[in-house]
What does this fold into?
Amino acid sequence: MRSRDRAARLALGLALVVGLDIGVGCGGAGAEQPNVSGGDRKAKDAVDVGVAPVPLRRLTREEYNNTVRDLLADTTRPADAFPPDEAVGGFESNNLAPVTPATVERYMDAAEVLAAKANKRLDALAPCAEGRPHDICAGEFVDTFGRLAFRRPLDEGERSALMALYADKAARSNYAGGIQLAIEAMLQSPQFLYRVEPAEGPSSSTRALSGYELATRLSFFVWASTPDSQLLDDAAAGRLSAPDGVERAARRMLKDPRAVDGIKSFHRQWLGLAQLETASKDVALGPAFTPELKSAMVEETLRFTAHAVLAGGDTVETLLTSSASFVNAPLAKVYGVPPPAEGFAMVDLPPGQRSGVLTHASVMTVLTHADETSPILRGRFVREKFLCQVIPPPPPSVNTTPPKIDPALTTKQRFAQHRTDPSCAACHQMMDPIGFGFEHYDAIGSFRAVEGAFPIDAVGELSSTDDADGPFDGAVELGVRLAASEEVRRCIAKQWFRFALGRSERDGDATSVAAAYRAFAREGFDVRELVVAIAKSHAFRHARFEEEGSAQ
It folds into this structure.
């Protein structure tokens, strides 16, 4: 009988491999229609070029884990076993590569396990009082849970298909078994696994997102999870049809504890912290580079960045200049501070050594090799993440192997060849002088005053910026310099825009990005205000659809 159940659900799952053309539809008869006001219609024709084509985005592993946590109270993080997510514009998006049969099998396995565990708590998920007909209770559950899982009301075809699965299984087992199979089916539907924004309308047309589509965008932006009932109610009532309604929803969401998930998600991706999962270091470096230490490094930065945002004030200044952070016992050893009594605690790190995320052990460790520091990686990081400047890849003929370690030379001296080799000089002049400013931090982020027998020379230089050029001595001075830069603050606004939309900004996005930055600056560079401004922007509230193959 189990094979019969899997076969029924496989019909849904295989649709992921070939597309979304299945009976459990893509915004069918019951889907809410676009919410376009008269003013929006007038504006639409003039700004079509200002909205990029819509990518069909599959839930990332983090979004999947958070969603099943919120739907089913499951905290086992089943998506950690899924294939790695794809990145677009520096942020996870999952809108490029096709889904393979092996991935479908992973989704099926996860759905089975999740539904089986849900079966044990049906009194909370799908209660049915004694004497009530089971089919009535099942219908109520399918309507309620389906609305949350699909992020909109089910259409008649979807509801009928799910109720048929329930009825068949319930007839062969019982009420609980039927509900379990319905949950499995919904967790494998493209309507759950994809953030579906149906490509309806003329080719290359722009339209306002429907309330439910906008609720989904907003929820995964702010919470990195699915909409709650209140947000879906806002969508149904048309309260998301105007910028003011979107602002009210966004402000409510930022006060919800789930906002921490969205904030952490942005910083984990922006700062490349996932790379710590696979990082390895030379055992001679000092403190053991254990999984516990890796985890502590990431947790410190995520706690610190969430605190910086939610505390209010000038978030950029806090991110780049604060000497306070969160440590546990393994991390305290790296920083040379007394360990907290238990868990993580907020402490002041050694003055003159640490200043914001640029000096966190997590960031410094990601931007090194296994046995030495990397001025290239560290300099490129600042250029791309904080200045939004693109460093072109090296020519195919250039040897990219770092200079060999030589005990008679410092790292800065070894990398001097980059400035004398004509094939390297142009790009490395953009990276190396910045990277030299981080030489006080070794390959696991520990502070050092000497390298071998030589005192550290951490004098660096910024160039080719709008307002931050000049020499600096060490990463603490660099953080102060960057925090004062308008170019850096504009870049951070762009990074949040990329995170929100799942793509890089286009030329036509200039109006939306500029408006978001103005609000950011007007409110003293409080990132919460930037989030609200992006959510209200034309680019966030609208979508453009193109025929297959026509998008650039």
In short: The longest helix spans residues 291-310. The radius of gyration is 26 Å. The chain has 27 helices and twelve strands. Residues 12-49, 548-552 have pLDDT under 50 and may be disordered.
